[in-house]
Amino acid sequence: MPIHHVNLDDQSSLRDVYATNTSERSLPKFRIPEQRTEPHAAYSLVRDELLLDGNARQNLATFCTTWVDDEVKQLMTDAVDKNMIDKDEYPQTAEIENRCVHILADLWHAQKSWETVGCSTTGSSEAAMLGGLALKWKWRQRREAEGKDTSKPNIVTGPVQICWKKFARYFDVEIREVPLEGEALGLQPEDLRKYCDENTIGVVATLGVTFTGIYEPVEALACELDALERDLGLDIPIHVDAASGGFIAPFIQRDLVWDFQIERVRSINASGHKYGLAPLGVGWIIWASKEDLPEDLIFYVDYLGGNMPTFALNFSRPGGEIIAQYYNFLRLGRDGYTAVQQACADTARWLGAKLANIGPFEMVYNGHGGLPAVAYKLTDADHGFTLYDLSERLRMRGWQIASYPLPSNRQETVVQRILIRHGVSRDLAHLLLDDIKRAISHLSQNPVPHSTAKPGFHHG
């Protein structure tokens, strides 16, 4: 019979979390602790700190997914040890990524969706940069073949998310961000002749402008570029930044022509973790054909067990988000995505109509024709408060609502934007509306003559 000894000093399983040595002092901030901490105590203390974060479901400034079902959470747990880049070790995860690429290519009307190329990324920002790199390389190849200078590439955009400015700076491309003229909220066809030239590697059209939620007119932009080619011989491709709209338009705006149906659209990026409904950490970039991705940009890695092609700015990254994206395609199908996105759009339009009837507001975007979102500004009257004050007041109830100035030429216009995503029900929108009314009433009765409120973080 074995003899078991009892360690009377070891009472870790009996000790209350808040009576441990670690709980009786501040958690380390600058140096790793010398001693270990019991797992349940470490977990509880870290979790307690996270309670100070905002409630993600009330964050209506972010485009990103804040609600996932239990099956997605389980799949993420199942895949926590899968490295997406190691395709030889995890061939089925690689196959699932490949399926998603072809599903998206088909969704976006690629002519031969089963043959086109694309990949997952850590988000739409990386995907956009990969699309920009392909445009630059293709432009440079054409210029070199013609014996022309390749030192001054530029890219023409409307009001874009910060990732495009990063792309321009990191990869030495001049960004020509067209200022907003008149009442315009995005890039217009008539802007192109003034800003495009022989050094333009491409035009970025945004399907869901970060600042307002509107769609830029991709088909009309393509028609103007066709005219530009006829008149000046400039063959300029379009990249569509469909970070959010790429998962909206195919389901609830099916008559809109914006994707690979347009010959001039050569690449599209989208965020799986925005209206694609996947958890945070996955974006997608798809090219119209294999010829649109220069071979020089593809690297072949042979030290992971096989000779694997890769084109990405990141290397090791988790596979769970890609698996969850495929689960959503399987779980929801076209019918399910349509139902979810239509419900979001209906709620946004309902909210837009209600906000239009509130005295201080003038609608900038009412939720029709673009993303499930609304944007509004204060009327010209002196209300005794700013939209920044209103954002701060709403935050007292947990709501995170973005307020900020519009881009150049309209920066004197401050707007407030509310995004309606999966999980933001009509009931939640109604509670938000009530809180907005109460906040306006309070601020009207208690003016802020010397307000110091500033723009807060607004996720694009």
From TrEMBL:
* Catalysed conversion reaction: L-glutamate + H(+) = 4-aminobutanoate + CO2
**Entry-linked Gene3D superfamilies:** 3.90.1150.160, 4.10.280.50, Type I PLP-dependent aspartate aminotransferase-like (Major domain)
Q: What is its EC number?
A: 4.1.1.15
Names of the cofactor(s): pyridoxal 5'-phosphate
Q: Which GO terms describe its molecular function?
A: glutamate decarboxylase activity
Alphabetized UniProt keyword annotations:
Decarboxylase, Lyase, Pyridoxal phosphate
Q: What family is this protein classified in?
A: Belongs to the group II decarboxylase family.
The protein here is known as Glutamate decarboxylase
Q: Which organism is it from?
A: Halomonas alkaliantarctica
